[in-house]
Write a structure and sequence with these properties.
Layout lengths: L1 H17 L2 H15 L3 H13 L7 H13 L3 H13 L7 H12 L4 H13 L7 H13 L3 H13 L7 H4 L1
Helix pairs in contact: 1-2, 2-3, 3-4, 4-5, 5-6, 6-7, 7-8, 8-9
């Protein structure tokens, strides 16, 4: 009984530091595992900081934890870190750095990174604008069921960007 009360007291004391409720408990556990070097926990902690789930929203802290996981080769973190560079949150905006991290995730088949790389090619962000290359990456993401990749690929067909205009294929 004493150990249960001690555990309950420890949780109650930590909640104000890590946020309220379940998200705060998850963030606290993620912090413990992230500090131990687990890439998934580092990614999750970055996610919590980015969205303010269980912790105060802090984009610089999100970047810190995304980077730790990304440097260990965790594809979701690589894509998220690339996104932070693309939008300039927590780091100065740097499209070339964004593309670097997207490519690392793409090498592992990450659909979100494929879609983001397609966007970079479509808009000439960090790479030379190349609509056909954009279509290639949107298609790879779409083939994995990635909704944004499907949407962007449909837009390419609808507007005839990088492919022949084809409204039937767009829909």
């Amino acid at each position: 009984m004493k150990s249960a009360l001690t555990a309950l007291l420890a949780i109650c004391l930590c909640l104000p530091l890590m946020g309220d409720g379940y998200d705060g408990i998850r963030a606290k556990q993620a912090l413990k595992n992230a500090r131990a070097g687990f890439d998934l926990a580092q990614y999750e902690l970055g996610y919590y900081y980015y969205h303010g789930k269980g912790v105060r929203k802090n984009h610089k802290e999100a970047v810190k934890w995304y980077r730790k996981a990304a440097e260990q080769g965790y594809a979701r973190a690589q894509c998220s870190l690339g996104y932070m560079y693309a939008i300039g949150e927590g780091v100065p905006q740097d499209f070339k750095e964004a593309v670097k991290w997207y490519r690392k995730a793409v090498d592992q088949g990450h659909a979100g990174a494929q879609s983001n790389l397609g966007y970079a090619y479509s808009h000439g962000q960090g790479v030379l604008e190349d609509k056909k290359e954009a279509v290639k990456w949107y298609r790879k993401a779409a083939e994995q069921g990635h909704a944004r990749g499907q949407h962007n690929l449909a837009g390419c067909y609808f507007h005839g960007q990088g492919v022949l205009k084809d409204n039937m294929t767009a829909y």
